[in-house]
UniProtKB/TrEMBL annotation:
It comes from Pseudomonas violetae. Its EC number is 2.7.7.65. This is diguanylate cyclase. It comes from the Bacteria. Pfam families: GGDEF.
């Protein structure tokens, strides 16, 4: 989750707690007007005002984002302790309705069920039990208990509920930990699968020997370029064939032929711009797509590539007179890729017919 999403979630949790406080204040005033709250009006007003002020202060702290600087941005334990303190103050001023308001202890502890650590939850539960027991003992010592047997029953009931909550909180936290571990494991498996998918995509799109794109992937990329090109943009396309490649294989062996193919791939990759597409079209034939390229730039690129390839020196074998022939054409908006490849192939045929080691352009034949 993003930082903003987490902060919005924390604000929603705070709004839920503030709503619980509002409900408790409503019941407090109801208890006061029905005579169950043993305190003067000023005490009720001051207590209610302090609750409202504390909630406004917490809202300002959350809204400012300063809570993100703390180890626990949710301030769960602080909010739970504040709620328990206010609830204990409320219980201390109740008479017969004391047992009814015990439910708010449970609500406050449930607020921290998913975010408090096990020991923090136990500390809060102990605070609840000893606070309520101390109030009961104090009233009993001063003979202020209207029904001592009922008070003992309330303490026992609270003890049983707190024990149940502690065990339930432990179960919930253990379940969340298991779910978290499973989520991390699932994430790791997903990352592994994504990596494997990328490897498979690379294997499908790449020629194993040269590391260049294969024919299928080139056709996919070229088709996408044609579909997205603008009306005033021209692309350059060239088919390149390594001269006398069959003779190299026959004389020096297929290992030498493979090294020639790899050498050409390295030289061509170094000569092209970022964004140009180079692929092995089949056998000793390669294809180049130069986006946003005019005739002069395409010719210059192919000539530079041809000259660079003639200067290649192979390691471990002596293959002389390496050369290539290229057929060039231009792609405009509305051109069919198969027609463009056919034009480039015809230009390549002319380059080979005219003596190899040269670049021929389809537009030259058209001009003639």
């Amino acid at each position: 989750m993003t930082h903003n999403a987490i902060q919005r979630l924390l604000l929603k949790r705070f709004a839920l707690a503030a709503g619980t406080y509002a409900l408790a204040l409503l019941l407090l005033w109801l208890a006061f007007f029905t005579g169950y709250y043993d305190a003067p009006l000023a005490s009720v007003v001051i207590g209610s005002a302090l609750v409202v002020i504390s909630q406004v202060a917490l809202f300002g702290f959350f809204y400012s984002g300063r809570n993100q600087r703390l180890p626990d941005p949710s301030l769960t334990e602080a909010q739970v302790l504040l709620g328990l303190g206010w609830q204990t103050w409320l219980i201390a001023h109740l008479d017969e309705a004391r047992g009814t308001f015990l439910v708010f202890y449970v609500l406050v502890l449930l607020f921290g069920l998913f975010h408090l650590s096990r020991y923090a939850f136990i500390r809060c539960a102990l605070l609840v039990f000893f606070s309520f027991s101390a109030i009961t003992l104090w009233d009993g010592y001063h003979f202020q208990l209207a029904d001592p047997a009922l008070a003992v029953l309330q303490v026992c009931l609270l003890f049983i509920v707190l024990i149940w909550l502690v065990f339930y909180a432990r179960y919930v936290q253990a379940s969340r930990q298991r779910m978290r571990q499973r989520r991390f494991a699932l994430q790791a498996h997903q990352d592994t699968l994504r990596g494997m998918m990328r490897q498979l995509e690379n294997l499908v799109a790449t020629d194993e020997l040269t590391g260049l794109f294969n024919r299928r992937h080139f056709l996919r990329l070229a088709t996408r370029e044609l579909d997205t090109m603008d009306a005033d943009v021209v692309h350059g396309l060239a088919l390149i064939d390594l001269d006398h490649f069959k003779r190299i294989n026959d004389v020096h062996g297929h290992a030498a032929g493979d090294q020639v193919l790899q050498a050409f791939a390295a030289v061509a990759s170094a000569c092209l711009r970022e964004g140009d597409v180079l692929a092995r079209y089949g056998g000793e034939e390669f294809v180049v797509l130069l986006p946003d390229c005019n005739a002069e730039r395409l010719t210059s690129c192919c000539e530079r590539l041809r000259i660079a390839f003639t200067d290649v020196e192979l390691i471990g074998i002596s293959v002389s007179h390496l050369s290539l022939s290229a057929g060039m054409t231009l792609l405009e908006l509305g051109d069919d890729l198969d027609d463009a490849l056919h034009r480039a192939d015809q230009a390549l045929y002319r380059a080979k017919r005219d003596g190899r080691n040269r670049c021929a352009a389809a537009w030259e034949n058209a001009d003639a």
